[in-house]
Amino acid sequence: MITVMIAGPRGNMGREAVKLVQREEGMKLTGVIDYKFGGKTMQDTGHMESLDIPVFETLDDAAKNKPDVLIDLTNPETGKKHLRRALELGIRPVVGTTGFTDEDIEALSVLAQEKKLGAVIAPNFAIGAILLMKLSVMAAKYMPEVEIIEQHHDRKLDAPSGTAMKTAQMISDVRPEASQGHPEEEEAWKGARGADYEGMKIHSVRLPGRVAHQEVIFGGEGQTLTIRHDSLNRASFMPGVKMAVEHAVAAAGLVYGLENLID
């Protein structure tokens, strides 16, 4: 039995994660972390009212229950703090937020190895989105002219999305840095061509009604190729969360990106 603590239980992703752990026979929810309702139960807060699950104000408080895994679905700032603190407390973190720098990942990897604990950072938990990344790398070897369009709900805080950034980074491993478009092109309105990553253009759309969507468009002589993924609801992320939890328990070291867990 894998005992699990969830940070961010009131968010859209957090609520789905609570449902996931509750229905999985091999997992047990031992508590949640919510700074607004520490000391209460989920039943008391009016969220998931049928659950008599304790709510802790901080991760240090929650650690008294000795969970095997922390699932953090909060925000970039809190996620970074929770990942490090979880490792220090002997808890395996699975973090679904973005904002980690290369230096952060390197330092946290060292800490995970020192503690002999598994840890996962996933910019995207959707299996289809991970397959999109891997297929994009395959395509970029032969069609290096590429742009990325990502669309999310209008409450998303960061742009570009972590998935778009991760996709661009993976493509850059097989694509030489090169600018795209006319060499003398000019933006009549600043930002019209999107963000630039090693010559690749990345465009972010934020609109109500969206969940998480990305397309990677490749252009070549007389042809184009578009690879697209759509998450239509947050339940689409839960198989990836389950995969990450099971890996964190079974292995030691930090994994950045679920693509490293898929053959």
Automatic annotation (TrEMBL):
It is found in: Cytoplasm. This is 4-hydroxy-tetrahydrodipicolinate reductase. It comes from Bacillus daqingensis. The active site is at H152, K156. The lineage of its organism: Bacteria, Bacillati, Bacillota, Bacilli, Bacillales. The gene is dapB. Homotetramer. NADP(+) binds at K40. The keyword Oxidoreductase applies. SUPFAM superfamilies: Glyceraldehyde-3-phosphate dehydrogenase-like, C-terminal domain (SSF55347), NAD(P)-binding Rossmann-fold domains (SSF51735).
